[in-house]
Amino acid sequence: MSLRKLALKLLTPGCFKTNKPISDQKSQTSKEISSRRLSLSDVSNSSICTVLSDLSNSLIGSNLHIFTQKELKKITHNFSKSNYLGEGGFGKVYKGFIDEKLRPGLEAQPVAVKVLDLDGKQGHREWLAEVIFLGQLKHPNLVNLIGYCCEDEHRLLVYEYMERGNLENRLFKCYGGTLPWLTRIKIAIGAAKGLSSLHEEEKQVIYRDFKASNILLDSDYTAKLSDFGLAIDGPEGDETHITTCVMGTHGYAAPEYVKTGHLTTMSDVYSFGVVLLELLTGRRSVDESRHGREQNLVEWSKPFLKDSHKLDRVMDPGLEGQYSTEGARKAAALAHQCLSHNPKCRPTMSTVVKTLEPLMDLNDIPIGPFVYVVPTEEKNKVPAYRIEREGQAECEVVKNGKNGEEKEVEVKAKGRHRSRKGHRYRNRIKSLRSSTVYSDTALYRILGTGLYSPK
C-alpha cells in the first residue's frame, strides 16, 4: 500500500471502524444537523463516514445516495475511455447513467462521476468539502450532487450531468461556435445568482475558486457552480474576515487575499469581475502567449472599461459587433467596480444580479442577416434557396441553371443584389441543405435559449 493511501486511512478511520455504537453517533449527529447546517469544522476525524451517512438520510442533506465502487464501475462501463469527459485537479470525470435498476426510487438520468486521484492536487479534505457543502446547499445555480462513494481508499462523487460542459471550453475553445451576447449575459447572471446564494446563507460560504472552468452549463446554458473543494465557511459574529492559507487560481484571486490571506465574500466578487471580463473580451484571465501587458487581462483591459469610446477595443471580436452597446457599457462598468482594489468599494453579489438582469431586455443589439434554406423534394432539381434580411420582405430564390451551378443572392438593405459562385461557396451551400441557419441575435429574441437546446 502506498504512503498516500496509508495516510488517507489514518486520517479517516471513521470510514473503516467506529469507537461508539452507531445508533448513539447517529442520534447525536441528527440533533446537530437538524439545528444548523453542518460545516467542515464540525466533522471529527473519528466519525466522518458516520456523519456522512446521517447527512445523506437527513432532510437537510437532500437524500444523498451512498454508492459502492462496484455500482459506479457498472454505470461508467468500468470507467471506460468512451465515457471519459475530462480531468481536473480533483481527478478524472466519466459519464454514466443511473436508473431504478441501480437504486430503487432513483430517477433515471445521465450523471458525471468524479474519481479522486490519490496522487493529484486535491485530496480527502477537498472531497469531504464537496459532500458537506453540496450535500446541504441546494439552488438552481449550484450543480446537484446526487451521491458519493467512500469505500476503502476510494473517493468518488456523482453529479448531475451538464450537457454543455464548462464555460472555459465553450468560451475559449470554440465548441459550437462563438457564444452570442445574450447567452453570455445569461451565463453571467446564473453564475452571479449562484455566488449570491452562498453569500446570503445564514452561515456564509466563501467559494474561493470562482473561475470559468468551475462554471458548468446545461443544455439551456443555465450556469451552475461546481467544484466546492476549496469552499470555506465565512467569518462569524463580529469578525470581518477569516485568515487562511492562500488557495485558488492565479489570475482570479483577489489581490488583498493573495497578499495577506484575509478572506471575505468580497474576494469572490473580485473573481466574478475577472470572469465577467472574460465574457466581454473573449480572452483568458492570464494568457502567456500574448505580449507584455496583455498577458494579464485585468491589467490590460481595466483602463478601457469606464470609457465608452474605447470599450470596443477590448470587446470580443468574435461577437462581430452584435452586442448591446448600452449593455456592454453597463457590464464593463460593473466589472470595473468588482475589480476595485478596495474590497469595500466592490458591490455585493445580490447587487451584481440586479445590475445584470435588465441587460437581457435591452433592444439596441444590431441584427445581422440570416439565411433561410428551403429544400425542395422535386426530382432532378437543385434545391431552391431563399436568402432574407431581418425586418425586410425582400428575397431572391435561385434555382438550377443550364450548367447546374448553384448561386446565392444576397439581399442588402437598399435592395442591391450580388451573386457569388465558386468551389468554396458551393461547399457552404451543400452544408446548409438539411437545416435552417439564422442570426443568433434575431432568433434568441424569438426562441430564447431554446435555440441552443439539443434536438
UniProtKB/TrEMBL annotation:
Its EC number is 2.7.11.1. Keywords: ATP-binding, Cell membrane, Kinase, Membrane, Nucleotide-binding, Serine/threonine-protein kinase, Transferase. InterPro entries: Kinase-like_dom_sf, Plant_Ser_Thr_Prot_Kinase, Prot_kinase_dom, Protein_kinase_ATP_BS, Ser-Thr/Tyr_kinase_cat_dom, Ser/Thr_kinase_AS. Residues 79-360 form the Protein kinase domain. It comes from the Eukaryota. It is an enzyme of class 2 (transferase). One of its GO terms (molecular function) is ATP binding. ATP binds at residue 114. It is found in: Cell membrane. It catalyses: L-threonyl-[protein] + ATP = O-phospho-L-threonyl-[protein] + ADP + H(+); L-seryl-[protein] + ATP = O-phospho-L-seryl-[protein] + ADP + H(+). Signal peptide: none annotated. Transmembrane segments: none annotated. GO terms for cellular component: plasma membrane. Belongs to the protein kinase superfamily. This is non-specific serine/threonine protein kinase. It comes from Prunus avium (Cherry). The gene is LOC110768913.
